[in-house]
Structures are given as structure tokens and as C-alpha cells.
Amino acid sequence: MTQVGTSGVEFMVDGDPTYAGREFQGHRVQGLLFNVRAVQATFDDANPVTRHLWTYPDTGAWDPGRNTEEFCAALPSWRDHGVLAFTVNLQGGGPLYAREIYSQFDNNGFTPEGDLKAAYADRMARVLARADELGMVVIVGLFYWIHVHKMRDEQAVWRAAGEGLKFLKGTGRRNVLVEIANETHARFGYECFRPEQAHRMINELRGKYPDFLYSTSLVGVNVETGRGMPPASLIEAADFVLLHGNGTRAPQLTAAIRAVQAMPAYQRSPKPIVINEDSPGIPNLEAAWRNGASWGYFDQGFGGPAAWSGDAYVYYRSRPRESRCEELSGFQTPPVNWTINTDLKRAFFERVAEITGYAGHAPSL
Q1: Helix, strand, coil shares of the chain as percentages rounded to 5?
Q2: What is the Cα–Cα distance from 75 to 87, expressed in whole angstroms?
Q3: Which among 88, 210, 223, 334 is least buried, having the fewest CB atoms inside 10 angstroms?
Q4: Sheet harboring 213-215: ordered strands across?
């Protein structure tokens, strides 16, 4: 059984640091956790008004079971390239940022009262089991802001957190890191999700479910404005520091990582820094790992930069769904092609293989 832990700034898997002994181009690789944002691995849409938007071209129907099955089938190839982790979320993420769609779709693993839906639990269990078999780590998110608004009240939110963690504990899997909320901020609507209060939620949930390592993420970092920078209270409480690189270029990401590392709260208790949402931009990957931070590939797919511009930094502009590419791409807009099938994906996976020493592609487990 795969077990994840930390030792200082390094991640450990089954008692050994990841990429043990590895250095590359004069920089430490040991202890890092290269990852992919794959929050739609358990995706479904309960709203019939938007559900038809995610249909597979070959069948004309949406199939959440097929989506999870194809995701699990792709994981050995990811691992063969040195990617040892990915992020999923019981409330998913943004599948398409057209206003009339984003405000309507319903991908929520919890009921409005905070109960965990059995179908989501089943799909998540399948994902955790496959990752466990492959020796991979899963960053499991509980909440995504737009679906928190579909919950009855704050009591339901706390119930959902408990139900989610009880489920995770019940699986017996120990390859799990917990991201309580994806990009916590005032828009969540509850005081417990405000960045300056995030440490309280971590401490309370850890007290009840001490089996896991906890963190929560904020929005894309900007050192000059302070946007997305974790407060000292969060750094002290978290078992690992989560940063997001959305909207940043490499120099700004470098500055953010170094700013966190220089904070007294961090220096008193150094711990891993993980970027688990950024872009398809390889310059940001380079900025992260060369400064001791793990990096996560975020590829929106249809309508996002990976699908149509070829420039990983072009700001997202939505287009009508009818004009989607015939060949599915990206990892966030369903229906997802989870294989390494585009130039941007290949650039990421091949560079990680080179950095980690998996360039020869280790045999699949």
C-alpha cells in the first residue's frame, strides 16, 4: 500500500524521498512531487440543461463511468514519465468558463445537506485504488467555490468535510493529501473559507481526522499585490504549502516561491511547497522546480490556450461549444482525452521525464 508523508521540505513515499538521490542541472529533484490538475476525473453533471455539453463525439452521450475508466487507464503512462501525483476534487473545477454554462453546471459530490453522493464516492475510490497500485499520490480536494454556493448552509459545509474525510479514511488508502478548498477566498461566502481563517478549518479537521496531511490553496500568486500569497497562519497550520501560478509568468512565480521561503513562519518550520494549478507553460515549470517547489500542469483544453492558440500564456477567451476541436485535448474540459495527445502535453511530460531521470520510461507497474 502506497503511503505519502513529508520530511522537512521533501515528500516521502513509502518512507523514501521521491526521486531519491536525483539532481539535475545543479538543482535538487529529490523530494519534489510533479503533478497534474485532473479535477474532472470523477466529473458528472446533474443539470440536464448543461449535461449534453459534455457528450463524447463517438457516442453522442456523456458517461461519467467511462471518463473515470479512461483516466485510470492513462495513469501508467503519466507515471512512466515521472509524474507521481495529480489533483482531483469532489466538487471538480471549471469545465468551461462561458457564463451561461459556468453558472449552471452541477458537478457536486455532496448533496445540499452535506452528504457524500455514492456515485462520486465510487468513482473516487476507483481513482485512489489505481493510484495506489501505481505508487502515485492523490491530492484530494473537497470544495470548489461555485458548488459551495449550492450547499444549504455552513453547517452543511462542515458536514460535507466530515463525510468526505470519513470516506477517505474508510478506503484505507494512505496515498492521499487533502486540499480542503481549491482557491479559497471571499467568494466562497463563508467565514471559514477566508484565507485568514483557513488555518482554523485545517486545525479542526486534522484534530478529527489525523490520518492525513492538509493544506488549502489560494488564487494565483502576485507578490507585489499580495494576491494569492498565504498568510503566516496558513503556512503554520498547513502540512504543505499550496500555491497557484495562474496568471503569472516565470519571474513572478520565482518571486512568490522565494517570498514564501523567506517568511519567518516558513523558516521556523520548512515544509514542501506545491504548485498544483498553473498553466501548460514550461517556463513556469522550470521556475518552480529550480527553486525547490513541485509544479502542477493545468491544461483547460477546449476553449483554453492549450486547445487553440499554441501559446500557454494566452488569456482564456471562451468560444461557442459547437466549434470544439474534433480531437479532444486538455485535462479540464469534458469530455477529456486523458492521454498524452497534444504538443503541450508532450512538452510537459517529456520535460518531467528528463528532470526526474524517467527519460527511459520505467516499466509500468
Answers
A1: 40, 15, 45
A2: 13
A3: 210
A4: 213-215, 176-182, 137-144, 85-89, 35-37, 296-297
> What residue type is 64 in one-letter code?
P
Q: How many CB atoms lie within 10 A of CB 338?
A: 24
Grid cell locating 314? 494566452
Neighbours of 184 (CB within 10 A): 27
How much is the pLDDT for 312? 55
pLDDT on residue 77: 98
* Global model pTM greater than 0.85: yes
Reference 92, options 331, 295, 316; nearest CA is 331
Phi and psi based region of residue 226 (left: phi greater than 0; alpha: psi -120 to 50; beta: remaining): left
CA atoms within 13 A on the CB side of 94: 22
Characterize 344-364 residue by residue with b for buried, 16 or more Cβ atoms within 10 angstroms of its Cβ, and e for exposed: bbebbbbbbbebbebeeeeee
Using left for φ > 0, alpha for ψ between -120 and 50, and beta otherwise, residue 119 falls in alpha
Torsion-angle region of 108 (φ positive above 0: left; ψ -120 to 50: alpha; else: beta) = beta
Among 145, 139, 194, 144, CA closest to 168: 139
Residue 246 carries which DSSP code?
T
DSSP 3-state of 235: helix
Contact (Cβ atoms closer than 8 angstroms) between residue 214 and residue 171: no
How far apart, in whole angstroms, are the C-alpha atoms of residue 148 and residue 150?
5
In tens, the pLDDT along 147-198 reads 999 999 999 999 999 999 999 999 999 999 999 999 998 788 899 999 999 9
Task: Give Cα separations from 225 to 6, 54, 220, 236 (angstroms).
Answer: 31, 37, 11, 22
CB 306 within 8 A of CB 344: yes
Region 213-239: mean pLDDT is: 97
Q: Where are the alpha helices (DSSP H) in 26-174?
A: 48-51, 64-80, 99-102, 118-134, 145-148, 154-171
Other beta carbons within 10 Å of 315 = 9
Span 24-32, average pLDDT: 98
Q: Give the model's pLDDT for residue 330.
A: 87
